[in-house]
Amino acid sequence: MARRDRPAIGPLDARAQAILRAVIEEYVVTATPVGSAALVERYHLGLSSATVRGVLADLEAAGLLTHPHTSAGRIPTDRGYRFYVESLADSTTLPAVEQLMIRHQFGQVQFASDHWFRLAATTLASMTGSAGLATAAKPAAVRLRRLDLVAQDHLASFVLVPLEGTIKQGQLSLPRRVDQAELTRVANRLNVELAGLTAAAIEAQVPAYYAAATLPGIDHDSAQAREALLVGRVAERIARTMRESDAASIEEVYSDGLLNVMEAPEFAHSEKLRRVFTALENRAYLGDLLGMMTGSGRIHVFIGHENTPAEMGDVSLVLARYGRPGRAVGVVGVLGPTRMAYPHAIGTVGFVSGLMNELVDHLYS
Amino acid sequence: MARRDRPAIGPLDARAQAILRAVIEEYVVTATPVGSAALVERYHLGLSSATVRGVLADLEAAGLLTHPHTSAGRIPTDRGYRFYVESLADSTTLPAVEQLMIRHQFGQVQFASDHWFRLAATTLASMTGSAGLATAAKPAAVRLRRLDLVAQDHLASFVLVPLEGTIKQGQLSLPRRVDQAELTRVANRLNVELAGLTAAAIEAQVPAYYAAATLPGIDHDSAQAREALLVGRVAERIARTMRESDAASIEEVYSDGLLNVMEAPEFAHSEKLRRVFTALENRAYLGDLLGMMTGSGRIHVFIGHENTPAEMGDVSLVLARYGRPGRAVGVVGVLGPTRMAYPHAIGTVGFVSGLMNELVDHLYS
DNA sequence: GTTAGCACTCTCCCCATTAGAGTGCTAACA
DNA sequence: TGTTAGCACTCTAATGGGGAGAGTGCTAAC
To answer: I need a labelling partner for A33 at 20 to 30 A (CA). Which of A87, B60, B203, B337 fits?
Structure first.
């Protein structure tokens, strides 16, 4: 019974670690509970199955493995995977061949378009066989590059091209019917006066525009006053749009390869997975995670029930932040069953996030 | 045996039609083969099950129903659904309540953004319980509204805002390193000279720009000549981008509610569905269908194996074109199992496509 | 500390049986 | 002549009872 006296959590001896690693790596491949016989057969442990059984019992007592039922082999617990990821996983640098493949794929697409983010999701999906996730790099504070206005009766639709990040479109209601010529004048003026400014800086300008429309010495019905009012209204509206964009931590989540995950045997009769998908559509969740993630290089692994929403209890996330804090950040990563090839996923995510860093540096330099 | 002598295809008497309709509507709800007893019980046919059995045998001989096996009830064939859709289906105008719900949803979102198309897909999905599909309205010939250029060494990234349709971004390589001030000059000039023009019209201008750079009397190294060359290069590139956009029949397919379809019992153990999804990602397919569809008001129904790709043999599409031919057209519709509530799907697609027509009229007026 | 041996437990698969659903046919009926 | 009741027949789906097999935990010997 000496074995059972070992502390539930604590330093595992090298042999136990080797066996834990073997169980996990076997289970990741076969998706069926791993027995002692299979281990001695496929991994040259230099031990008999009886000895291995003893160690397996220890690992189970330590909470790193479980038993679906008495006469089945062991499967890793979330804690088992956690231990594996933190201290047992092999080198997580991606083989050169795969690096090349990814670089090649990225080379095919043009810079400076949101295709990058879709491509990142697609690449991650195809390389890992799990679902790939990516968000666009969202700038910390949007700066205006150009504004374009089109008249529509007493409405105007606007296109707002920021210096970085994604284009915004919208509408604003005008205080009166305005023709295109006047709107173009307004847009030109604002393009000159507000270029490169952030939401806050534009907001600071707004009172001045309104003041110009209501100066004591000015006829409020004059064309000049009316146009000043219009300028103020437009400036206010685009500042609001930019402010809203700044407030959101994530603009859009691209995903690809959800079907890969669907195919995994543990989700064959998938009730659970549906809820995972809907949880994923909630951008707030990834946004929260983004807040928790530190360091551009670090890979964050969230295993099974470590994910706070219960729906995510059967899947793991391997995520990395990319970009420059304070400038623009986004998330890339993969989602898969907890039974996931973590080292490879970590390597792939790390490499792709590195590429995304390069991209951001390039675009925001 | 008199019954068997009836022509395989031909005018069905009213009773046979009523029974066919009953079988289909029952099967759509229950998803299990329909027997004669169930029919006399739930539909007041004023007949005995034995008589109904006779009629069912006729309908099967006519190819409108099948038999999974001897002792099971009947299920409709693709031809049965086709007959139903064409001559038996109840009124396909959407109930006022549902019309209101849809209008309400559409009222929530801003005009003039691509949210409309996503919204159409989402609405169709939620209203029909199938998957919703929508493509953006693609203009027949893009016209330039505004061009924006940003320098990046010897590259420039451009944003091309068309008068209608979706914004395009891209990059072009420059013949030399160009600073932002010069690029802005170029953009301003092109914005003045090319505003409102189509790809063809812009292409027509390009030779003139190049000619200006190589006029006999001009110093080829002069700033003026070099800038004219640049103008030509940029004009050429944006014309190409617009031309490519014109050539594509569909720019992007939004879909929503694919999970709805996944949940249908016929796809519980879904090998097939995966292939459907991948087939759907191929935009060319919807593009081909778009070409086949005529008339803005008409709803097109493609049932099971009527779809040319074999993968689509187990699903049906209910699609409508919307927009103005020659100006801008797109597709909306739903995808679901062949066992689909066709009248309701047709009504919903019809109503939504009507709304999309209004939208296009509004935007392109 | 390790190993061989062994009893034990549990799942999974196969098989036979059965209940039930639904048909097709026939003979009687209106 | 069309309709109906009755009935034999067929096939599926569900049920339950064995093995067979996998894998464990324990013990005694090395």
So the answer is: A87
